[in-house]
Queue: 4 jobs
Job 1
Amino acid sequence: MNTHCDNIRSHYSGKWANIPVVKTWDKGPTTDLPFGFSVLEFAPTQARDMWTYATCCMSQPSDSELLELHLFSPVQCESLVELLTVVAHYHRTGQPLALGHTVNFGRPWINGSICDYGLISLPYLDGPLIEEFRLPESEKIVRCLWLVPITRAERDYKKAHGLAALEHKLEQSNFNYLDPFRPSVVSSV
């Protein structure tokens, strides 16, 4: 039993009004991840017509900054469990991630997509109710942020012009965050 993981799972379930399937990826150095780490798979509902995948226990109560990530998909996709596990591994053993960071997926988000990077963004679809979760009996806040699949050109644009400029471009273009085959909202930088 891992109370921290249970609290995170309850937070997501309560806010998204859905019970997840708990998934794990057992290939690679997953023993480097915290005890109880998993990826939660939320099936579509009437209110949320998409698959949602969320890390659970990527953060630990002893961390100075507690971070969990989620991403959306138009289809059920086991490879997203692997993707979030790899991102969590990088966060825990490589470079700590935070709002505004980008990560190189090393492959397309979904097969055939040109989105092979992820942008750690505010959870604009769900707002602050999903973003901030205070641990029971603690002053610590877990930040649940959105991992938005982006293209290399969009990542380069963010590096050159900043997070706000890229988010403005994404918003202006009314980009479809569920379309793995969407074009880049910027041309090469």
Job 2
Amino acid sequence: MTKIIEGIKFKGKPFEIPDCSRDDLPRFFKEDMKYTVGVEVGVYAGEYTEQLCKAGLKVFGVDPWLVYRDYRKHPKELPYEELFDITKKRLTPYNCSLIRKTSMEALNDIPDNSTDFIYLDGNHALPYITQDIYFWNKKLKVGGVMAGHDYFDSSHNPYWIRVCHVKSAVNLCAKILGVENFYILKGKDKCPSWFWIKP
């Protein structure tokens, strides 16, 4: 992936990388970018966190594992205490620290300019994804990767259970933050991931 992204500059539209998915990011972080530590916001049951850890990365996993104001719990989701227990068991063998707080509460646990990558997969409604991008970007080192899942916009109905405004929020924040290296992973995933390199 490194050869693909070299020299490509963002000019209002992200560059699409074909045949890649978020499953390629852990190796890209560890082997190509030589990263060692990062944060995943929105851990759920820890499946993707485990992929990051298996690549040899130290991961701070941020998730409140609770229903909070404006969160629309899907009827088929497991109870959060059960999910938290599953996650702890799954990630015990790895270099992973779980931070059981909301995204904004957890900001105080991570120093500014300290992490190599941030992967956002928390609340995808506009107010939440926008503040996640803006505030967590401060935790990244220059040259670090801000990334996330579900690069699309769903129904404009704000009361839909799976509301997603990631595409609009990411595009807006990229412009505001002066991002030049902005990519979409267009491959095997039904819902593509996105990333940029912090200028």
Job 3
Amino acid sequence: MPSFIDIKGNTYNRLTVINRTANQGKKTSWLCLCKCGNYATVFGQYLKSGRTKSCGCYQKEQARAIRTVHGRASKVDRHSDTYKQYSREITLMRKYKLPIERYNQMLKEQDNKCKICSYEFGQKQGDIYVDHCHTTKEVRGLLCQGCNSGLGYFKDNQDALAKAIDYLNKGK
């Protein structure tokens, strides 16, 4: 059986041992002062092994850090406005390399309307589409669903679009 070792005054991670408390079974427990100012009673073996690092404040900090992405707290509620806005910003950057500031500037320049047909955005949720060249990945403008889909169906082929315009003009 190992002999008792006095660890009073020692510091383990964020905990400084103040005094020995009553044993719980065969385990020696110690009263500790955490760097945050709270007290905690901890088993000696947990202090020495590093299993217990703080009074609980460290775990809370770690959990907060996990819930924080790019300096912003992500929300568990995926329907909140904060989460939707953050999600949109991340998507714009990931897919189009388009900062939210530039996106908002484009909306303002286009008077909150589709660049082709002047459909006013905001009539339906999610009615703004970022149009971009699939070859160069360069963003061209913000379009409504119909205009964006039309360009997509024509695969950005200007000759096919010109033929479509001629076709429509002959039908008049």
Job 4
Amino acid sequence: MKPLIVFTALAFAAAAHSQTPQKSTAECGVKPSKYFDMSFREFDQTEGKGWREIKDQPGCDLAAADMIAQFREWMVDNAAGLDWHEAQGRAMAGQNDKALELFRRYLAFEKSKPAEHRSDENILKAEATVAFMEGDLNRLRDVRARLVVLPKPDGFDQGIARFKERYPNATPPTWPLNLGVVDGLIKCFGKPYAEAYGECRKSIAGN
């Protein structure tokens, strides 16, 4: 073996042996909720905070990397939520082409999620909204038919019970979620989004 190759191989071997044993996220004190309350700049750029706070601990490089991945996923989810709210605002104001573009982008993002993180009711709400904006009543009715047969998630009733205890004067959500939104779009099909999402939705009992 040539001297340069031997030296390189030994260098890599030494680096591998010198790596610090990695601790678990719990041992590094990682609490994701703490970091999700931070701004992007605070999490990414502030010394002694965010992922750097984790990385500065011996053996916590991997835990810091995992937290960065979680924070990125959280940021992407929130950006998609902004797409939806921007789309609604533009649709309310009659900017239908731009609103439809954003509604479609939100729908594509929701569909791209892994199955374990996917919300079928959110997907169907988005599909119904896109169908409404595209003027496709048959597809809108098909979405409603799929929405009403969605199985109620485990723990939903217990969550409603807790909601009633915490907010006794508020109207609790009903299953399936977003049915009132879809019914409003059907009831006022062909009218402006602002009317369908506003008065038409609100006029339907229980939604």
